[in-house]
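Assess this one:
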Amino acid sequence: SKTAMTIQIVQDIQDKWIMKAEGKGAGLFALLVFITLTLAGCGGTNEGTVSLADKSYRVSAIIGPDSDGFDAPDGILWNEGKLYMADEGGPAVRIWSDPKNVKTLSNSGNGIMSPEDLVLDPDGNIFFTDDDAGGVWKIDREGKIALLAGKERGLVSTEGIALAPSGEILVGDGKQHKIFSVRQNGEVSVFLDAGITKPESMVFDEQGNLYIGDNVDQVVYRLSPDKKLTRVIQNRQDFSPESMWYSGGVLYITDSDYGKLLRYDPKNGVKIIASFGGAFRKVCGVTTDDRENIYLSIQTHIDNKIGYIIRLERN
């Protein structure tokens, strides 16, 4: 069960305490590179650590659990001062601004089971995937939820999702090893049916290239607009891409198996931004705001509905 938490913040270099906060849903703001988290009453003590390899960032906020209006989010998306969440632990889709301003748009009563990832179109419609219920789901601007295309259309276990420049929705199916195209009218066609084992995450860059993260083969692919598929990250030790986000010429990649946040660009290659351990190890979703601050979703324990949002702020 969820309980009150204690967070202690430690300076990495001087190894001395600089802040201690106690309470439910604590949101903390401080310069730091190492965190110790204690959760009482959940079968012992769990510690969560964040180590920053890129010193141009600082951990400026840790949000959750319990009273913050979410459970254990997976995919997240920043838009106009709000976080859109595919809250897998809910299960629910939510819009979060602060603990007092949370809007739940859908839950299990609407038929969703395990929301994975989500995108937002220019008209304000939300589309999301569900690896248990399958299909592509839509929530319109008025909050009406509908299954746009389901298992009967071949979308059995949906994972990554991306909004193409053409307006079609691309969705990866982890059991059929394909990427499908879904139109706004629910029409489904095969977009890519070879080369990808598990399309866990997808995102476009500004040139129209589609990046695809395969966390079974441990590869990040780049698919050009003319559908030329190349491996941009492969044969990397301890690497399993979970979620991806593209902004400012940089591809951000989370790794929930090895507890890492990485960045990639063609000039500099792959660099580690931060490493996570303990209760923070399973880092899932990633997004950035208008100032290029990074937001990460952490799934500590889905069954117990324990998850966090961590913000890395640019120094």
Remarks:
- Confidence is low (pLDDT under 50) at residues 1-35, 37-45.
- The radius of gyration is 19 Å.
- The chain is about 0% helix and 55% strand.
- Residues 211 and 222 are 5 Å apart (CA to CA).
